[in-house]
Amino acid sequence: MAAAFAERERDRRDVSDQITIVTGGTQPADHVHDVVVEAMRERDIDLSGRTPQEVTPDELQAVDLVVTMGCSASDVCPATWNGENRDWGLDDPHERPIEGVREIRDEIEARVGALFDELLSETPSAE
C-alpha cells in the first residue's frame, strides 16, 4: 500500500526525476491479499496485478531513506542502511476485516503524503 501511495504522490507532484521508490519485504507474501486489493481499489489504485517482492540488504545500500511498516523487518539490520531509517509501526493488514484494513490504508496514505511534504520542503527547488 505504501509503495502504491508513494508512486501516486510522486506522479501527482511531478517529482519522478527526484524520487525513486524501492519496495519490498523481508518475508513477502506470495500475493497481495484480496482485502488489501479491495481497500486500495476504493482509492482508485489497482494492486491486483502486483506481486510482493523481497528487498535485499544490497538494495538497501543504495537508498537514502528506509521506511518500515513495523512488521517482519527484524531480520534486516538497520546498521547496513546508508541513509535514514523510520519505522511507522503499523499493524499488518493480513487477516484483518476490511474495516481494519481501511484504517491501516488511511494511516499509510496520510503518512506518505506527510513524508512527501517533508522531503520536498527539504529539496532545493530548481531556479
Quick gist of this model?
By secondary structure, the chain is mainly alpha-helical.
State the shape: globular
Q: Give the percentage of residues in beta strands.
A: 5-15%
- Domains, number: 1
Structural class: mainly alpha
Task: Describe this protein's structure.
- This protein is mainly alpha-helical.
- The chain has one domain: Response regulator (Rossmann fold), CATH 3.40.50.2300.
- The radius of gyration is 15 Å and the shape is globular.
- The protein contains 4 helices and 2 strands; from the N terminus they run H-H-H-E-E-H.
- Strands 1-2 form a two-stranded parallel sheet.
Secondary structure blueprint with pairings:
Elements: H1 2-12, H2 34-41, H3 57-61, E1 65-68, E2 84-87, H4 98-122
Parallel strand pairs: 1-2
Helix pairs in contact: 1-4, 2-4
Keywords for this entry:
127 residues, mainly alpha, Rossmann fold, two-stranded parallel ribbon, 39% helix
